[in-house]
Amino acid sequence: MTELPAAAPITGQRVRRSLVPTQQDYEFDAFYTFEMTRVSVFLMNLGASPYEAADAAHEAFLALLPDKWRTLEHPGAYLRTVAYRKYLRQATSRMLPTDPVPDRPGGTCPMELIILTNEQQRMLDLLAELPLAEREAMAWNLDGFNHEETAAILGKNPAAVRQAYKRARTRLINALGLKEAATNE
């Protein structure tokens, strides 16, 4: 599914890339900066460790290069779908990382932006205990997608996504002991 940039023509001429960043470079950098942390957190909501999330998110960004991200109507949704699939494929080769997460251009590591409080970690632990359909519905919702958008992305019925979200919300409310607060809303 990963598309690589087209190979340079074999004509004896070297393809030269300007050392001066273009407008397209700045636009992709802004897109990357905006989405990288959000996609990583999205994957963590689906059960990925921070390292697994960063790895899958980086692979998903590679699928958008060089210019595929510009041609998509919803590049953010595409990015999350590809990243989630990359994460699921990691399941067969999961092991603890020994190398640090590589820095992105500019010397900042995206992992530094993901600092979890105890409450957030508890919420991730609770999300991990949910059945897959409920965890998916909740993760997409937490990332700002409504039930209809989520259903279209996942290829499911909107009513099924809505029901999975409702069940997940009920389970989380019960697990957090917020039942009384939820009934007062």
What does this structure look like?
Residues 1-21 have low confidence and may be disordered. The longest helix is centred in the first third of the chain and has 23 residues, at 23-45. α2 (50-64) packs across α4 and α6 (132-142) crosses α8 (158-176). The protein contains 9 helices and no strands. By secondary structure, it is mainly α.
List its salient traits.
185 residues; mainly alpha; 61% helix; disordered N terminus
SSE order and pairing:
Blueprint: H1 23-45, H2 50-64, H3 68-71, H4 75-89, H5 118-129, H6 132-142, H7 147-154, H8 158-176, H9 179-183
Helix pairs in contact: 1-2, 1-4, 2-4, 6-8, 7-8
Summarize this, please?
The protein is built from nine helices and no strands. It has 185 residues and is an all-alpha fold.
Q: What percent of the residues sit in helical stretches (DSSP H or I)?
A: 55-70%
Percentage of β-strand residues? under 5%
Give me the number of helical elements: 9
Mean pLDDT: 75
Terminal CA distance: 45 Å
| Spatial extent as radius of gyration | 19 Å
- Low-confidence parts, pLDDT < 50 over ≥5 residues? 1-21
Give the helices and strands as they follow along the chain.
HHHHHHHHH
Number of strands: 0
Largest sheet: none
Counting helices, strands and paired strands, the structural category is: mainly alpha
Shape: globular
